[in-house]
């Protein structure tokens, strides 16, 4: 799995924290890792972007970003309003493929959800994933509302000829409610893809050393982790 595309059901669902966890687990398994933020919006030139945040949390990764636009909008809109060149899906695919020649794993993080537009032609992360023929991980919220959004994302991936690699819950609450607990078994059902982990709420605020040592425990073996999905499901059962 040299390239793994990381999408989510939307923005602010924990894609960056999950990307950092996947990167940390891969690093601790001895793999080299690159992280590519396809297009960064809402961040000024001197601020830390998502790829930098992954490097801060996970450690020695190659952090790359194709473009940065100041306004917190979809990349296509932000590029147009800034009078800047947009990022095209082919550029995302080309850069990811280039990084994959010198890294064991390349993680590509989108902006917002799967169909967020990168350019005026309506190019999306799904198009880039298709060009790469890469598996796509869906980051989903834990609570009420996630089932519909996750199923829509999984269906849209399949409509593009892409297979979802699985689902990771981007922020698992310290005190899960009924819907959170039911969703542990319902999410893989609606996505027709395995649940591959759950990143605890607040993980992004951990000190990097704690983040790196704990990250493998949040992710399934397929993502270089030690997370036991069945035990988690039993523990969290309603
Ligand atoms: N598990 C978590 N631990 C700590 N903070 C989290 C966690 N999940 C999400 N957050 C917080 O929620 C916010 C959104 O998370 P994140 O940046 O990962 O979103 P995203 O899905 O990557 O969105 P974007 O589309 O902007 O890339 C951030 O402020 C982040 O600190
Ligand atoms: C600014 C934000 N944090 C993301 N980088 C961009 C999210 C775009 C979402 C667009 C939408 O789906 O309406
Ligand atoms: Mg992010």
Low-pLDDT regions: none
Q: How many domains, as an integer?
A: 1
Q: Roughly what percent helix?
A: 25-40%
C-alpha termini separation: 34 Å
What is the N-to-C succession of helices and strands? Answer: EHEEHEEHHEHEHEHEHH
Q: Please state the overall shape, judged from the principal axes of the Cα atoms.
A: globular
Q: What portion of residues belong to β-strands?
A: 15-25%
Based on secondary structure, the structural category is alpha/beta
Q: If classified by CATH, what would the architecture be? A: 3-Layer(aba) Sandwich
Strand order of the largest sheet: 4-2-6-1-7-8-9
Instruction: Spell out the CATH superfamily.
Output: P-loop containing nucleotide triphosphate hydrolases
Mean pLDDT: 97
CATH top level class name: Alpha Beta
CATH topology: Rossmann fold
Q: Which cofactor or ligand species appear?
A: adenosine-5'-triphosphate, 7,8-diamino-nonanoic acid, magnesium ion
Helix segment count?
9
Largest sheet: 7 strands, parallel
Secondary structure: number of strands: 9
Give me the Rg, rounded.
17 Å
What can you see in these coordinates?
- The chain is an alpha/beta fold and 238 residues long.
- It has a single domain (3-236), classed as Rossmann fold (3-Layer(aba) Sandwich), CATH 3.40.50.300.
- The chain is 39% helix and 18% strand.
- The chain has 9 helices and 9 strands.
- It has helices spanning 15-28, 50-58, 75-82, 89-100, 125-132, 146-159, 178-191, 208-214, 229-236; strands spanning 3-8, 33-37, 40-41, 62-65, 68-69, 105-109, 136-140, 164-172, 195-200.
- The strands form 2 sheets. Strands 4-2-6-1-7-8-9 form a 7-stranded parallel sheet, sandwiched between helices. The chain has a two-stranded parallel sheet with strand order 3-5.
- Helix 6 runs parallel beside helix 7.
- It is globular and about 50 Å long.
- The N and C termini lie far apart (34 Å).
- 52% of the residues are buried.
- Adenosine-5'-triphosphate is lined by residues 8, 11-17, 50, 111-112, 170-171, 199-205.
- Adenosine-5'-triphosphate binds next to helix 1, strand 8 and strand 9.
């Amino acid at each position: 799995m040299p390239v793994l595309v990381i999408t989510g059901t939307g923005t602010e669902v924990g894609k960056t924290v999950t990307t950092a966890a996947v990167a940390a687990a891969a690093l601790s398994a001895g793999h080299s890792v690159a992280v590519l933020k396809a297009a960064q919006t809402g961040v000024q030139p001197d601020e830390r972007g998502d790829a930098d945040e992954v490097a801060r949390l996970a450690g020695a990764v190659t952090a790359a970003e194709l473009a940065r636009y100041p306004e917190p909008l979809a990349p296509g809109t932000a590029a147009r309003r800034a009078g800047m060149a947009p990022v095209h899906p082919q550029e995302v695919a080309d850069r990811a493929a280039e990084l994959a020649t010198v890294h064991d794993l390349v993680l590509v993080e989108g902006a917002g959800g799967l169909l967020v537009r990168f350019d005026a032609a309506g190019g999306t992360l799904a198009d880039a994933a298709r060009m790469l023929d890469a598996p796509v991980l869906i980051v989903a919220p834990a609570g009420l509302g996630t089932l519909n959004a996750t199923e829509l994302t999984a269906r849209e991936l399949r409509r593009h000829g892409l297979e979802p690699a699985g689902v990771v819950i981007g922020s698992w609450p310290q005190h899960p409610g009924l819907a959170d607990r039911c969703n542990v078994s319902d999410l893989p059902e609606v996505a027709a893809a395995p649940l591959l982990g759950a990143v605890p709420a607040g993980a992004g605020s951990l000190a990097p050393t704690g983040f790196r040592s704990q990250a493998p425990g949040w992710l399934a073996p397929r993502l270089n982790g030690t997370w036991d999905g069945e035990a988690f499901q039993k523990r969290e059962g309603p």
